[in-house]
Amino acid sequence: ALTPARRAREHWWIASYSALRLGGERIGEGEEAPETALEATTREMRDEPQDPAGTPLPMSGTSLHLFPRGPAAGTFLHGLLEWAGVEGFARLAADPECLDDTLARRANLRGWRERIPALQAWLRGLLESELPVPSAPEGPVAPLRLDRLESAHYQVELEFWFAAHRVDSARLDALVSAHTLGGAARPALERDRLNGMLKGFIDLVVEHEGRFYVLDWKSNHLGRDDEAYSEAAMAEAVREKRYDLQYCLYLLALHRLLKSRLPDYDIDRHLGGAIYVFLRGQHAPSRGVHRERPPRQLIEALDALFRTPEDATALEAQP
């Protein structure tokens, strides 16, 4: 019998943003990749601080500043926004009774009856809020309103997969860090090689004024008032949590999708950027929105980094 000259099992695994963010912890070794968007959200927020059981937190008005912290509250808000997107943001804005009824039912299941009025007012306000978007090469773009989106112009919880052929995470980290957040310092990824597939779920993909954006809902508690959700404070949270890496991978996935679907696709003309909505900062001057449009050179560099040798050869052979 022949003796194998190499290991029988190659180190091949399915990675996700949460695995990368946690450094050396690998989904492929001891932990399965998330199967659903809600599971991915729960995993992302598992290290978020939460309030002790039984903490009395009154809540009034339309602000989420006093809403409970932690993974349970975060998955509740994400699930609520996923439902609103599937039902239709514009339809719910025009039918507040349906919105109020469903939200009340969901809140009652969590034992949050006293918070129902504030949650209803918050969600109605979010649908009507003017969310700032990243500027385009030619200048500023009009704000985005959820209640004016037609269902044909957005996709809820877009799942993506793409190959990762021995991708050096240090190289990935260096590219993203150099081209986002003004090059500011941030926690570094632990060095690894991604070999297998990269998988993820994008909360919302939106077409707005001819450009496509990735939106992500963030329930992070940054403070007890609107001042805690300044642009600088949210940028700091993005650096600390490495959300910059997350939205760059999301934009890479969207770039590849658009490139395969739009005959005249051009990064500068069609890829709008990332809109990260910190839900508790809705009434801050920033609207709780961190936005960024990474440069074309970064998207192209990431595309090349994740390209397999076979893909590269095929592209070079094209006329």
What does this structure look like?
- With 319 residues, the protein is an alpha/beta fold.
- The chain has twelve helices and six strands.
- Strands 1, 2, 3, 4, 5 and 6 form a six-stranded mixed β-sheet that branches.
- Helix 5 packs across helix 6 and helix 7 packs antiparallel against helix 11.
- The longest helix has 19 residues.
- The N and C termini lie far apart (47 Å).
Short description:
This protein has twelve helices and six strands. The chain is of the alpha/beta class and 319 residues long.
Structural class, by secondary structure, is alpha/beta
Largest sheet: 6 strands, mixed
In quaternary terms, these chains amount to single chain
Percentage beta strand: 15-25%
The percent range for helix content is 25-40%
Terminal Cα span = 47 Å
Mean pLDDT: 87
* SSE series: EHHHHHHEHEEHHHEEHH
Tell me the Rg in angstroms.
21 Å
Number of helices: 12
Name the shape in a single word.
globular
Overall number of strands: 6
Spans of 5+ residues with little confidence (pLDDT < 50)?
24-30, 312-319
Task: Fill in the keyword field for this structure.
17% strand; globular; disordered C terminus; single chain; 319 residues; six-stranded mixed sheet; 12 helices; alpha/beta
